[in-house]
TrEMBL record:
Keywords: Cobalt, Lyase, Metal-binding, NAD, Nucleotide-binding, Zinc. Transmembrane segments: none annotated. The keyword Plastid does not apply. GO terms for molecular function: 3-dehydroquinate synthase activity; metal ion binding; nucleotide binding. It holds the Pfam family DHQS_C. One of its GO terms (biological process) is chorismate biosynthetic process. InterPro entries: Dehydroquinate_synthase (IPR050071), DHQ_synth_AroB (IPR016037), DHQ_synth_fam (IPR030963), DHQS/DOIS_N (IPR030960), DHQS_C (IPR056179). This is 3-dehydroquinate synthase. The keyword NAD applies.
Length: 355
């Protein structure tokens, strides 16, 4: 697989990852290397990575607890303190090995420590391979509100080794697949059509599908790095999806949803709203709902919960001038940004999902 370049960042795949990182370490002569992991990637991924790393530089391991609940400023403070205690300087390198929590938080820590040190992302989940690690978005949650604090700043390298997917449970694989489905819906009908029988996808299929997803996101980010227009399309399903994810995260009576599980619901709702507002065929909306529900199941959302979820929409990052802006579809591969949606249509969308 050819490596991909966007702006000053290079994305490498499979064995090329290790050739690239070793050359980078030799060329840059970093003073120290700091590797951020959680307890899972420390045990399952770090030994594999270190075995292929050719470095004479001092390496320090910093471990944080896994899970979205730890993606916050308090965790950042702990990592910043560790970097300071271990004598990190501006010529240090941070390598983030993990899923979206690690790459988002680790990137933010690196971009802000001593006003910015170099960092490399090594995504180990499907979600982080096709989404979180690519595009330079870094950051953390503010309480239960998703990704409210952060900066856009690219890593030196992104290293995508699909072998790490062998360490993932099936629910994490499904979570990542949701973002790939989104890429198909917003940009490429032929890519979308490859997912019509999700039960037949194998790890061998995923290599090429991951590559195509990264190319789709890279092309969007190249054209709109700071989300002024086209990049907003990557938020399809995320306006309501993030609100649902935040609601479940903050409600002690609810089981926490994985990111992709919430985004699947958000995409079903967004397709229904698209049918009501932007001419997306209702037949396709029904097909998409059936495909998603058959593969992901249906999450129980009571109609008394619609209002508090809708209330959370005001924190969505696409909003401006007090308006809540949705990404909708006119057809597969033809998204429409900055759409205003009345609450009654959102409520009807929830009714459609739970029916």
């Amino acid at each position: 697989m050819d490596s991909i370049t966007y702006k000053d960042c290079k994305i490498h795949f499979k064995e090329e990852c290790y050739l690239a990182i070793n050359k980078h370490l030799k060329d840059k002569n970093f003073s120290k290397i700091f590797i951020l992991v959680d307890e899972n990637t420390h045990a399952k991924c770090l030994p594999v990575f270190l075995e292929k790393l050719d470095a004479n530089t001092v390496i320090e391991i910093i471990e944080i607890e896994s899970g979205e609940v730890n993606k916050n400023i308090d965790t950042c403070v702990g990592v910043w303190n560790s970097l300071s205690d271990l004598d990190a300087d501006r010529k240090s390198l941070m390598i983030n090995i993990g899923g979206g929590v690690i790459t988002d938080l680790g990137g933010f820590v690196a971009c802000t420590f001593k006003r910015g040190i170099s960092y490399v992302n090594v995504p180990t989940t499907l979600l982080s391979m096709v989404d979180a690690s690519v595009g330079g978005k870094t950051g953390v949650d503010l309480g239960h509100l998703k990704n409210q604090i952060g900066v856009i700043s690219d890593p030196d390298l992104v290293l995508i080794d699909p072998n790490f997917l062998n360490t993932l449970p099936s629910n994490q694989m499904r979570s990542g697949l949701a973002e790939m489905l989104k890429h198909g819906l917003i940009s490429d009908e032929s890519y979308w059509n490859k997912f019509q029988d999700l039960t037949k996808l194998s790890l061998a299929d995923l290599d090429e599908l991951i590559y195509q997803s990264v190319v789709i996101k890279k092309n969007v980010v190249d054209e709109d790095p700071f989300e002024d227009g086209l990049r907003k399309t990557l938020n399809f399903g995320h306006t309501l999806g993030h609100a649902i994810e935040s609601y479940f995260l903050s409600n002690p009576n609810k089981s926490t949803l994985l990111h992709g599980e919430a985004i699947v619901i958000g995409m079903i709702l967004a397709c229904y709203i698209s049918s009501e507002i932007s001419g997306f065929p209702m037949e396709l909306t029904n097909d998409i709902k059936e495909l998603f529900v058959n593969y992901y199941g249906k999450v129980n959302i009571d109609n008394t919960e619609y209002s508090p979820i809708i209330e959370l929409l005001k924190y969505d990052k696409k909003n401006n001038h007090g308006n809540i802006n949705f990404v909708l579809l006119e057809s597969i591969g033809k998204p429409k940004i900055d759409c205003k949606v009345e609450d009654r249509i959102i409520i009807n969308a929830f009714d459609f999902y739970i029916s």
